[in-house]
Amino acid sequence: MIQDSGAGIVITSPQGENLEFAVKFGFKTSNNKVEYEALVIGIKMAHEVGGKHLTTYSDSQLIVKQVEGTYEAKEENMLQYLQQIVELKTSFDYFNLFKFLEKKMPKLTAFPSLPVP
């Protein structure tokens, strides 16, 4: 378990503008829970700013594979996160989650449905 962990979230607009957020979790948790928490928060934030096409990145292969359905979530708390993400991603016209390379910074790319001038 990790004490006082956190995550960075970057939402990038179609124009290349970044909204950067840091999230601190003030409780003991696992790496997987931190990854799921950050993903849920990022998806909700992308939805709040009007994103309709969402490409997300995570450094957790386990979570990427669980979201795409290749791996099964067996622990109850991981299953709850997975179900929440499955529900949240239905609010987007396009949603994809990729594993990023260790040296790259994770980000969410949110594209609004309205045309950009």
UniProtKB/TrEMBL annotation:
Residues in RNase H type-1 domain copies: 3-96
Keyword annotations: Coiled coil
UniProt keyword Cell membrane present: no
InterPro entries: RNaseH-like_sf (IPR012337), RNaseH_domain (IPR002156), RNaseH_sf (IPR036397)
GO MF entries: nucleic acid binding; RNA-DNA hybrid ribonuclease activity
Tree of life domain: Eukaryota
Coiled-coil annotated spans: 64-91
Identification of the protein by name: RNase H type-1 domain-containing protein
UniProt keyword Disulfide bond present: no
Lineage of origin: Eukaryota, Viridiplantae, Streptophyta, Embryophyta, Tracheophyta
Secretion signal span: none
Classification via Pfam families: RVT_3
